[in-house]
Task: inverse folding
């Protein structure tokens, strides 16, 4: 900055006799100019009355300094962190359930040395892994499970945005955890659980626009359980659980995601337990 | 269809009907509110909470017109703008026990989409205004009921809302905190519209500039606290249990007159 | 640049305060309390209220310095804290039913010409004289919304006039200035 306030102008301002335009100029400039702030402070120190006021204020201030708070900078990353901290990915019970399901799948798969559960030939991991994100989404969002839902429903970002942030967090936990489990059982990376898992997740979200996320998760999860039950009882690996079905699952994923985008306004008013009865 | 709203009108409700599956909560309610502290009185089940939930953009009307901060609530685009300028505290609110007061208030500042750079200071100021500055970094599970209530109020005011909706906000506050809270409400009401639903008639008498009395899903009285008190003077007296204070007698008289219709 | 200055900048002081340094806080106060107090006095015409707002502002600085993330914006940051507190103080006074009439006549009638010339570097002389001829109530609105960066709603509280009046006066003030400058 090349221009600075002239000393006489500063003195006039401190004395309270600066012209209005000068005062505006000083105030606008001083906000951005450290050097002129310091100049002004020096001029004020030479004014006995003002210096006395400032000293008194300083003494009172320093005598009563409270403990400093744990305040953090307001960066977008901080915002993301705080929005996630309230979601299920950060909650013990859901994490514990995820880990237990995976441990169960690993145990059964290892015990049967990859031959599948009971009559089924599909690895248990393939049967159970797609359910994990659905459970996570169910725990993410819903009047029954989010404690502060009543307030969240009145906020601008409390709809689809919060839901997507939390769903992403759920996937960020379940996908790597399942891959790790797959490595243990020797299944390693396989699209047979990943793509159905994603498709069931978007289906749950889409269903959430109609019946609420919690109920949609119950329906989708129940549907998957039925497929698994048929698979186990029929003692044959049904086509839905095999590699060739992957394109079909991809199509389900793509279509439900597109439909979700079209229906996003529905998240402005999620179905809640107390819902006005629509007559129209 | 959409009524043009005049500048400065915070809430405009016309012929609002809200029906649930098995009962009618609001039956043709009208209400106009400007800046100031407004009390919403009425017996349990009168429809106070339903009205708060409609104005808070949670519940949707079955029929009627609701404009909040100059926008018709049927307009999905405007909804986001309205929500950024809302503050809402329900009677029963869940919280995350492991959050600190600061994190709790910050959480809602983010959800209200405040500019990120302004959030830390806005949170600090909101917590200070409710008198919790010394407990700002305590976890919510360690707070008393009154402190929790104040943390709830802090999240409601963190964005300097133009419309502040408080449902039974003094529950759990001790008498001294109630006095502080009334001062805060009056200060906020200078340039914002504050609607306080309460069954505590005395709260209204002291803190509010205006009172609306709801009964059976309709507005049955609208006026200043003094006018409500005056309504009790003309009522047929002789009943000892009609209230201890003038405003309570007015409240009872208006309700009785409405029921007798 | 004044290369001889080895003193920490306000940014550095704020970071040190954020880490809990009371020494840095005292230095920050010494540098910034004067301009803040004078500017607040010019805004509310009440020395006692201005002193209270300075106290509250620096307490907030002590608590919240750790959240400062600007570079060279320490002045604007401090002023934005102070304006929020000033308006809160006004709200409390209005709520108590006290008058908050803003003194619009603190402006001396004659502008010193020597200073007017120095001013030309940052503020055009025509603009200065146009500002000077502006009616006090229009100038007050312009000051609140442009110079102090307040929202219409905040300016309305500070000046104790309806929001609609703030808008019309701001429009009129801009028109006057535009006319005077063409």
Result:
């Amino acid at each position: 900055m090349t221009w600075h306030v002239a000393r006489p102008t500063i003195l006039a301002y401190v004395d309270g006799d600066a012209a209005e335009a000068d005062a505006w100029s000083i105030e606008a400039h001083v906000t951005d100019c450290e050097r002129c702030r310091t100049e002004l402070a020096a001029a004020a120190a030479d004014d006995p009355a003002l210096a006395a006021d400032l000293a008194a204020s300083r003494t009172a201030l320093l005598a009563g300094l409270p403990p400093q708070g744990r305040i953090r900078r307001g960066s977008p990353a901080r915002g993301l962190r705080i929005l996630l901290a309230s979601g299920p990915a950060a909650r013990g019970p859901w994490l514990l359930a995820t880990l237990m399901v995976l441990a169960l799948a690993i145990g059964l798969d290892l015990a049967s040395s990859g031959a599948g559960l009971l009559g089924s030939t599909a690895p248990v991991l393939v049967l159970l892994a797609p359910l994990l994100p659905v459970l996570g989404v169910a725990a993410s969002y819903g009047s029954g499970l989010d404690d502060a839902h009543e307030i969240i429903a009145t906020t601008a970002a409390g709809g689809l945005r919060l839901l997507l942030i939390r769903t992403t967090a759920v996937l960020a936990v379940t996908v790597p955890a399942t891959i790790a489990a797959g490595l243990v059982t020797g299944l390693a990376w396989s699209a047979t659980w990943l793509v159905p898992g994603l498709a069931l997740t978007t289906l749950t979200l889409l269903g959430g626009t109609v019946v609420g996320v919690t109920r949609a998760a119950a329906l989708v999860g129940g549907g998957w359980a039925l497929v698994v039950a048929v698979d186990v009882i029929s003692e044959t690996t049904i086509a839905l659980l095999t590699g060739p079905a992957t394109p079909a699952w991809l199509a389900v994923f793509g279509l439900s995601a597109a439909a979700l985008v079209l229906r996003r306004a529905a998240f402005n008013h999620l179905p809640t337990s107390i819902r006005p009865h629509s007559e129209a | 269809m959409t009524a043009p709203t005049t500048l400065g009108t915070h809430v405009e409700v016309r012929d609002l009907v809200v029906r649930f599956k098995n009962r009618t909560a609001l039956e043709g309610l009208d209400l106009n509110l400007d800046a100031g502290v407004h009390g919403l009185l009425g017996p349990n089940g009168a429809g106070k909470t339903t009205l708060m939930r409609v104005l808070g953009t949670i519940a949707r009307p079955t029929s009627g017109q609701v404009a909040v901060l100059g926008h018709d609530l049927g307009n999905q685009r405007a909804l986001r703008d309205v929500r950024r300028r809302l503050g809402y505290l329900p009677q029963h609110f869940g919280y995350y026990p492991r959050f600190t007061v600061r994190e709790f208030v910050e959480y809602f500042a983010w959800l209200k989409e405040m500019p990120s750079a302004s959030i830390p200071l806005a949170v600090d100021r909101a917590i200070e205004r409710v008198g919790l500055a010394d407990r700002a970094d305590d976890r919510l599970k360690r707070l008393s009921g009154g402190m929790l209530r104040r943390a709830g109020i802090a999240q409601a005011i963190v964005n300097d809302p133009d419309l502040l909706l408080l449902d039974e906000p003094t529950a759990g506050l001790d008498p001294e905190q109630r006095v502080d809270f009334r001062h805060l409400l009056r200060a906020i009401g200078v340039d914002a519209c504050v609607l306080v639903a309460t069954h505590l008639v005395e709260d209204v008498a002291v803190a509010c500039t205006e009172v609306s009395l709801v009964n059976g899903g309709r507005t049955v009285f609208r006026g200043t606290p003094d006018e409500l008190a005056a309504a009790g003077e003309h009522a047929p007296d002789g009943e000892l249990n009609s209230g201890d204070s003038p405003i309570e007698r007015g409240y009872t008289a208006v309700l009785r007159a409405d029921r007798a219709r | 640049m004044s290369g001889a200055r080895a003193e920490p900048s306000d940014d550095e002081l704020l970071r040190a305060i954020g880490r809990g340094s009371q020494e840095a806080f005292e230095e920050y106060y010494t540098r910034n309390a004067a301009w803040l107090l004078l500017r607040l006095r010019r805004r509310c015409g009440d020395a006692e209220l201005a002193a209270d707002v300075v106290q509250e502002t620096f307490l907030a600085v002590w608590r919240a310095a750790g959240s400062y993330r600007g570079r060279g914006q320490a002045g604007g940051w401090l002023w934005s804290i102070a304006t929020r507190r000033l308006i809160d103080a006004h709200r409390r006074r209005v709520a108590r039913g006290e008058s908050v009439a803003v003194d619009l006549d603190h402006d001396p009638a004659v502008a010193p010409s020597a200073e007017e010339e120095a001013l030309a570097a940052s503020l055009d002389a025509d603009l200065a004289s146009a500002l000077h001829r502006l009616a006090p109530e229009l100038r007050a609105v312009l000051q609140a919304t442009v110079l102090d960066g307040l929202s219409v709603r905040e300016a309305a509280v500070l000046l104790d006039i309806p929001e609609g009046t703030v808008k019309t006066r701001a429009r009129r003030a801009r028109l006057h200035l535009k006319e005077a400058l063409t």
In short: The CA atoms of residues 126 and 172 of chain C lie 18 Å apart. Residues 103-122 of chain C have pLDDT under 50 and may be disordered.
